[in-house]
């Protein structure tokens, strides 16, 4: 069966510091991968999606970036965090069946 | 573009009450429709889905019917339990297969009191 992992589970970072969040999927090949942000415990905003290695599409201009160095690995990064980057970050995967499966999330607090 | 509208709540019910959470959508063509549930501090879990008009998705006592004529996908459960307390998200996948992500409603916070 397929599983999706995210780490770290929680993170507290000062403004201006870098960020790296990792997501990996097991048990499937060539999935579509997604990064969402959920602010204030509600509403999901799609940040990035990827249909293959090295292929990244950005939905929202911001100081975040994403990379997909391996088929089942998706990384969310920032060079300098802003207060507004605080939130709950969710990674998800899907295949051709359209539904998406989400990871447990990373709670990021920027101080 | 595509959009999903759902009541935000909070919706507060007593245990064993009947639940309806309304969801309507705007999309071109024939999207697939989903309900997700999020328990506190966790990721989203797929609750049920429907991929074509008049399909009924069901899981764990929850049901939702894809109504093309009213562009709706309302979530129902006949008798809720305290353990159903969570945030529920209605979502759609565009006709192209959703490779560019799902469109979510803002979520409905459900509180079930014993």
Number of strands of chain B: 12
Question: Radius of gyration of chain B in whole Å, from Cα?
Answer: 14 Å
Q: Per DSSP, what share of the residues of chain B sits in E-state strands of 2 or more residues?
A: over 45%
- Most extensive protein-chain contact, per-chain counts: A-B, 26 and 25 residues
Helix content of chain A: under 10%
Shape of chain A: globular
Give the biggest beta sheet of chain B.
6 strands, mixed
The helix tally of chain B amounts to 0
Word description of this protein:
- With 111 residues, chain A is an all-beta fold.
- Helix content of chain A is 0%, strand content 61%.
- Chain A contains no helices and 11 strands.
- In chain A, the strands form 2 sheets. In chain A, strands 2, 4, 5, 6, 9, 10 and 11 form a 7-stranded mixed sheet that branches. Chain A has a 4-stranded antiparallel sheet with strand order 1-3-8-7, with no helix packed on it.
- The radius of gyration of chain A is 13 Å and the shape is globular.
- By secondary structure, chain B is mainly beta.
- In chain B, 0% of the residues lie in helices and 49% in strands.
- Chain B has no helices and 12 strands.
- Chain B has strands spanning 3-6, 11-14, 19-21, 23-26, 32-38, 44-50, 56-59, 62-65, 75-77, 86-93, 103-104, 108-113.
- Chain B is globular, with a radius of gyration of 14 Å.
- In chain B, 40% of the residues are buried.
- The model of chain B has no long low-confidence stretch (mean pLDDT 92).
- Chain A binds chain B through residues 6, 32, 34, 36, 41-44, 46, 49, 51, 57, 59, 90, 92, 94, 96, 98-105, 107, and chain B through 8, 32, 34, 36, 41-46, 49, 51, 87, 89, 93, 97-102, 104, 106-107, 109.
């Amino acid at each position: 069966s397929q599983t999706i992992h995210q780490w770290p589970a929680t993170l507290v970072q000062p403004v201006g510091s870098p960020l790296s969040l990792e997501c990996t999927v097991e048990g499937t090949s060539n999935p579509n991968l997604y990064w969402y942000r959920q602010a204030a415990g509600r509403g999901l905003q799609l940040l990035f999606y990827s249909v293959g290695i090295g292929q990244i599409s950005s939905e929202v201009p911001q100081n975040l970036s994403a990379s997909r160095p391996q088929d089942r690995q998706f990384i969310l990064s920032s060079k300098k965090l802003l207060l507004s980057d605080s939130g709950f970050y969710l990674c998800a995967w899907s295949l051709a069946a359209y539904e998406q499966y989400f990871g447990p999330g990373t709670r990021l607090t920027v101080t | 573009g595509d959009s999903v509208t759902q009541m935000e709540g909070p919706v507060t019910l007593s245990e064993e009450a009947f639940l309806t959470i309304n969801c309507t959508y705007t999309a071109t063509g024939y999207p697939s429709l989903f309900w997700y549930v999020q328990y506190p501090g966790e990721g989203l879990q797929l609750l049920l889905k429907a991929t074509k008009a008049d399909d009924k998705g069901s899981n764990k006592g929850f049901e939702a019917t894809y109504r093309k004529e009213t562009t709706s996908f309302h979530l129902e459960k006949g008798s809720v339990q305290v353990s159903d307390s969570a945030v529920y998200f209605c979502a759609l996948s565009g006709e192209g297969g959703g490779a560019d992500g799902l469109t979510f409603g803002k979520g409905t916070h459900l509180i079930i009191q014993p």
